[in-house]
Design goal:
The chain is of the alpha+beta class and about 450 residues long. It folds into three domains: about 110 residues, 2-Layer Sandwich (Phosphorylase Kinase, domain 1), CATH 3.30.200.20; about 200 residues, Transferase(Phosphotransferase), domain 1 (Orthogonal Bundle), CATH 1.10.510.10; about 110 residues, no CATH class. It contains 17 helices and twelve strands. The strands form four sheets. Strands 3-4-5-6-8-7 form a six-stranded antiparallel sheet, with helices on one face. A two-stranded antiparallel ribbon has the order 1-2. The chain starts with a strand and ends in a 6-residue tail after the last helix.
Length: about 450
């Protein structure tokens, strides 16, 4: 049996859910030996790895690994239902392709292998510093129509996803095609009793059933509500509310104000009309169906509010537009932004727990450098200020912060002496991350 390390245990479900770290381990059985290379995602019921078959060279998969439920248990039934649902719908071009499933020799784990999608998830694209959806009507329309087609295909086959959200939508390398994934909560019962299923801020009011008055809800209509939430997230980078209940302040405002969307989202009148047809909180049966949803999306000229209308709108709309609809970063700026974020994270993890004066000084100097770097990334130039070791030359350090003429390459930063020539620093976790940051900047031209 493969060795494993328990990395998370936290659940109130039928049995304690366990997520195991199996990276770089050989798993499976004699018929399906598989090497799990790295983790690419976590879910409530398992962990998804990038892995490859040891029998078929060059064959790579997204492998969802779950602790195998006990025989006849609710967990085992859910795992079987997920497998059946995926196999039933996966022939559609916009649904993640099922490849194979198996257990290990000891029947400790269940492995569900699917086609690997190189572009990550839709939530990764939404959060990407290049803002691929910012005023990009063509891309939004293309991907969302694909999503509508995938969900409609599931519904026609009697499969209702019940956990539609950006995290469960995968993209190809070019972000030009999407694939619906994760059928762990899918149901083949349209008139459903599985209340509170799914992710709270994407769930419909009738699925949440806050006042406990309903005995069933329409799983198809709940999926359509979630599709509306996904559209808004693609267009604005945020969710409208935390949960569709009277207890949520934003949802309560939506119920009370017919102009809620205009006051809170930089979206066009066409998009507002779509939202009004989707978010029918008091009567799910009147909610738009997918064929009508598709036609409305096809006919949209623009999903976004004009710059003139934004200028006349609320502070909330202006703030979202500034954050999400401004001119996207260039490729170089995006690379720089990501590299600095990685270094910033390593800085916090490595030095926050240190008490020595030297570490505190280093933390302060690095933070100053990072702030300056982030400011320059936001501008049209990406020169990096040079850090030196205060313990060797404090005057030189104060002069070098903010320099605009420092060439950007891993070689310069290591050859220039000071902090980055220090063996202690270079061997530290922060130093190793800094080297990868400099590798990222190799060859970047400086204006």
């Amino acid at each position: 049996m493969p060795t494993h390390k328990l990395i998370s245990v936290d659940s109130s479900e039928e049995r304690k859910r366990e997520i195991f770290e199996l990276s770089n381990k050989i798993v499976g059985n004699n018929y399906h030996p598989m090497e799990l290379i790295r983790v690419v995602g976590h879910g409530g019921w398992g962990t998804v790895y990038y892995g490859h078959s040891l029998l078929n060279a060059g064959t790579y998969y997204a492998v969802k690994v779950m602790p195998l439920g006990k025989a006849h248990s609710g967990v085992r039934r859910m795992q079987y239902k997920e497998l059946c649902s995926l196999r039933k719908v996966s022939k559609h071009p916009n649904i993640t392709k099922f490849e194979l499933s198996f257990t290990d020799k000891e029947e400790k784990y269940f492995f569900l292998c699917m086609k690997y999608c190189e572009g990550g998830s839709l939530v990764d694209a939404i959060r990407h510093p290049r803002r691929p959806f910012a005023r990009n009507d063509a891309l939004v329309k293309k991907l969302f129509l694909q999503l509508l087609d995938a969900v409609e295909h599931c519904h026609k086959l009697g499969v209702y996803h019940r956990d539609l959200k950006p995290d469960n939508i995968l993209l190809d390398k070019t972000w030009s095609n999407l694939y619906l994934s994760d059928f762990g909560l899918a149901s083949e019962t349209k008139k459903n009793t599985g209340f509170t299923t799914g992710t709270r801020n994407y769930s419909s009011p009738e699925c949440i059933n806050h006042d406990k008055k309903l005995t069933t809800y329409d799983a198809e209509k709940t999926d359509i509500w979630a599709l509306g939430m996904i559209l808004i997230t693609m267009l604005t980078g945020h969710s409208l509310w935390k949960e569709a209940t009277i207890e949520d302040r934003n949802f309560r405002k939506f119920m009370e104000d017919d102009d809620f969307f205009k006051k809170n989202c930089p979206i066009s009148e066409e998009t507002v009309n779509i939202c009004r047809r989707v978010f029918t909180y008091d009567n799910a049966s009147s909610r738009i169906d997918i064929p009508t949803f598709r036609e409305m999306i096809k006919n949209v000229k623009t999903f976004y509010m004009s710059e003139e209308d934004i200028a006349q709108s609320t502070s909330q709309v202006k703030e979202i537009a500034q954050k999400f609809l401004t001119k996207p970063m260039s490729e170089e700026q995006a690379r720089a932004h990501q590299a600095v974020r990685e270094w910033q994270k390593a800085l916090a993890e490595t030095y926050d727990s240190e008490d020595s004066n030297s570490s505190n000084e280093l933390h302060s100097e690095c933070s100053t450098c990072l702030s300056e770097m982030m400011g320059r990334i936001a501008s049209k130039t990406i020169p990096l200020p040079q850090l030196t070791d205060d313990r060797e030359s404090s005057d030189q350090a104060s002069d070098s912060i903010g320099r605009m003429d420092t060439p950007v390459s891993s070689g310069v930063m290591s050859e220039g002496g000071g902090l980055f020539a220090s063996k202690t620093f270079n061997r530290s976790p922060l130093g190793l991350v800094w080297k990868s940051v400099m590798d990222t900047f190799e060859g970047v031209s400086i204006v």
